[in-house]
Amino acid sequence: MSVNIEQWLVRIPVLLFAITIHEYAHGKAAYSLGDPTAKKMGRLSYNPLVHIDPLGAICLFLFNFGWAKPVPVNPSYFENRRQGIILMALSGPLANLSAAFLAGIFIRYFLLSWPIYGEVLAYLLLMNLGLGLFNLLPIPPLDGSHILENILYPSAAEKFRRAGRYGPIVLILIILLDNYAHTGILSRILIYPMFHLGHLFAGDNLWKLIPLLK
What pTM was estimated for this model as a whole? Predict the structure, then answer.
């Protein structure tokens, strides 16, 4: 994929921002539910360096779908373990979707003719949508898998947990097949929701910015 220097200079800070708010939200939610583990380990932080998972960052940067280093959580602190895990897992994607919504509002109502301004907003919108929606997929180790596991009955949850060891391999294979064998798996699952939500947040001004990202 060809990306010029200006796009790299825009995408890297946006990527770091998206990862940071995602993981900070997880840590903050866990802390609010009584778990101090992330805070004690220095993960309740706005410093992006403590949250970066190298492989997840590369996937997000190259393919707009990725993940960060999981925040350490000790569910035994939660008053209601299953509910606490669900809320904690939801908090990261919701932080990204909230950031995308704010970027969309600026695109819709405060769009300027300065190209770099529009480019930053477009990446903020789409990369946060990509990270948020991707992490809602029910494939371990993504947040969606923790949500699904704690919705299932205990017996089904245990089977899902055992199968989860293969999750990262499945995830990488899907990404590689989608981008190099052109299977379109992620496109069918995520691209439409990304652009549907992007248009919902940003309105028709979104289409004016898409050429800036090519």
Answer: 0.90
pLDDT tens digits, one per residue of 81-129:
999 999 999 999 999 999 999 999 999 999 998 999 999 999 999 999 9
Active site residue 79: no
Question: What whole-number distance in Å separates Cα of residue 170 and Cα of residue 137?
Answer: 12
Instruction: Point out the catalytic residue in the list 23, 79, 119, 149.
Output: 23
pLDDT digits (tens, 9 = 90+) for 30-46: 999 999 999 999 999 99
pLDDT exceeds 80 at position 60: no
What does the buried/exposed string (b/e) look like for 169-207 if buried means 16 or more CB atoms within 10 Å of the residue's CB? Answer: eebeebbeebbeeeeeebeebbbeebeebbbebbbebbe
